[in-house]
Design brief:
The chain contains eight helices and 15 strands. Helices cover 22% and strands 28% of the residues. The strands form three sheets. Strands 3, 4, 5, 6, 7, 14 and 15 form a seven-stranded mixed beta sheet that branches. The chain has a six-stranded parallel beta sheet with strand order 10-9-8-11-12-13, covered by helices on one side. Strands 1-2 form a two-stranded antiparallel sheet. It is globular and about 55 Å long. Helix 2 packs across helix 3 (154-165). By secondary structure, it is an alpha/beta fold. Helix 8 (289-292) links the parallel strand 14 and strand 15. The termini are close together.
Length: 306
Amino acid sequence: MKAVRFHEFGGPDVLRYEEAERPVAGEGQVLIRVAGSAVNPADSGIRSGTLPFPVTLPHVPGYDVSGTVEELGGGVTGFRLGDAVVGFLPMGEDGSAAEYVAAPAAVLAAAPSRIPLPDAAALPSVALTAWQALFDLAGLQGGQRLLIVGAGGAVGGYAIQLAKRAEVHVIATASPRSRASVLAAGADEVIDHTVSGVVESVREPVDVLLNLAPISEEEFEALVPLVRDGGIVVATTAWMTTPGDDSRGVRTAGVFVEASADQLAQLVALVDSGELTVEVARRVPLSELPEVATGELRGKVVVVPQ
């Protein structure tokens, strides 16, 4: 089969489009014929060796997948050959930037039928990140106020949609490039952080601050006073400490997204009901992945095997 792999750690230039051995479904796994594989910023971190996910070289990147079940491994129930599925794959194992991938059946859900199957690869990890950040960690509830810093990426888009569905007032920071998509997702207020200070622009305290942006520690600290007493600061920025304020009961939480087939199935149901939109900015052939594999793609690019 064709696959994109890297044989050493480094920049995008270490990626190779080449022949690789087709995997087989082991115990508890299914073999998926890949329809789509999403490109995410964390792929760059794994490839460069800066994210602590030990991988065996050569390694196939891509931890989001959509496709059809080609083969069932031992002990697998609940899936049949030909089923359309979507999943968030183990980040340390060979991924979906290939024509086929072996995946644990436990992380898979039926793919949404409302959108093209390749585009469904843009859903799993980023939508799960938004869900777990807002509801599992922050305990977000209707009537609350949410500030999302760095809302222009894929996680931000899902976070806005999910929060609005929960009847939350959403304030989002975004650049002019992302303003239209942030408004389309449903943000009540958009702060252009390139021209306005966030602290000065938020007029009332928020219950939840969700940081998705690579801001400095000083900038992050300056945002904490915007959170009401007893509120919470949640962040996906694992490379720095999430600041809080013990004196006011402002708690902190870091997001380390986990595969959850149950949550993914709920997200798929929202897509199929029209309550959640999957935004795909671009589709690229698998052979072109080495040319487009940058962290700036922000989870909205889907790779499609030829």
